[in-house]
Each structure stands twice: as structure tokens, then as C-alpha cells.
Amino acid sequence: MLKKIYHLGYAVEDITAAARFYEEHFGARVGEPEEIEEQGIVATMFEVGESMVELVQPTRPDSPVGKFLEKRGEGFHHVAFQVEDLQASLEELKENGVELIDEEPRIGAGGTRMAFVHPKGAHGVLTELVELPADKG
Length: 137
Prior knowledge:
With 137 residues, the protein is α+β, with helices and mostly antiparallel strands. Helices cover 23% and strands 36% of the residues. Strands 2-3-4-1-5-8-7-6 form an eight-stranded mixed sheet.
């Protein structure tokens, strides 16, 4: 089911400051921030080898990332795995009793299709499954 680690998500208070940190200290080339209104975040990514790091800043305190920051502070938020067929992956997980946050795919950053597996269903790790658009896969 899993093709590769697509990205690691870091929750940050200030996406501009976090991006500048990775640019100045690690030479990262951070992309343009993108607002995903449905999720209440602004996100940007930078490549690390074949994977990426996604910086996510909440746009409102009641968003999942806003609540995460309030409770836990900045840091590691989630791991995202690339899958070939997101709908089939979700159906298989559900059939096997894995607790999902999203039973249907949503649109994520960069036009990807994505869905989250509940941390209770993945040994405490918020897990995102990502299906790339046909032109990027």
C-alpha cells in the first residue's frame, strides 16, 4: 500500500520564520505558502532527498493544527505516506478496523488527494495518506 514517505509535517506558530530558519541554516529551498481553507492552515514544503518537510501554520485557533499547537506546542505533527490508490487504501484500512479521521479523500496542498488515519489507529502517530495528481505521480 505505501509507496514512500511523502512528507513529514511540522506544526509551527510562524511559517515565515520557520521557512527562513530552514533556508538560512540548512540551505532548503522552501516553496510558496498555500492556504488550505478547509483545514484551517497555511502550508509550505521543501525537499529533503526524495521526501519533503511540510511546515503548517494554523489560520484559526480552532483548527486541528491550532488545537495541536495550543496543547503540545511546535514540533512534529504527522507523517504522510504516498499511496497509489487512496480510495482503495481507505477502504482496506476501514475493513481491517483501523480508525480513520477521513473516510473519504479530501483535497490537500498542491492539489493532492489526502486523508488522515487517526493516531489511535496508528500507534499514536497522526498518519496522512496522499495520492498525487496524475501529472505528478
